[in-house]
């Protein structure tokens, strides 16, 4: 079955520093990661298409990602960043859509996990930006921590015309083995029809040196029960995943975790959900 990698990153440190790589734990990935390297890994694993996701809250990054996608048929979608609180956010989204590769803009994301206010998503200026994202026909990726999930629920209730995609399943505490209160919060979000979960980033939330597939299963099973395969998508989180596993290991782990599903359901998680949610078909 065709696989869509719905979440990965690329960066060139000569173009822009990635300040979040400053800690010693990030030494293994403190280097450039070009599209050529991604393509080699993806093709070796049978991945047919990918979605490139922003890494820094810098306005210049999104046009660069769009231009990169325009030059490579593997990268079918881009989840970029723009300032949701800016008065001209609607005009900026329209401008991005007209840039080279603008047709591949499929979503917007902000590093909400770094915001001190747990209800940042509910601020009036942010709400105006989320409405503009919906009007532009884009999805909104949520990169949040478990304590921020209640605000995600309320935001999704308020913006029912906007699809919210929960990156990394909301970063559950896999290393500790605790399931609650994360599971209840995820179920609350998944109860809303305009929400989707992303099966990504879990290996780096586990014990990176000693994780096993079974460590991830309670969290994936919770997500499958809550969202269903039709609202769950696979993402490698490459190259961040390299802190704990190779590209191929992450994909094989996902395949193992959904092995108990039927063929159609597995196809949804591994590709069809991302195709539909991000509207990847026919992206020029």
From TrEMBL:
SUPFAM superfamilies: Metallo-dependent hydrolases. Gene3D superfamilies: Metal-dependent hydrolases (3.20.20.140). It comes from the Bacteria. InterPro entries: Amidohydro-rel, Metal_Hydrolase, Metallo-dep_Lactonases. Residues 4-280 form the Amidohydrolase-related domain. Belongs to the metallo-dependent hydrolases superfamily. This is Amidohydrolase family protein.
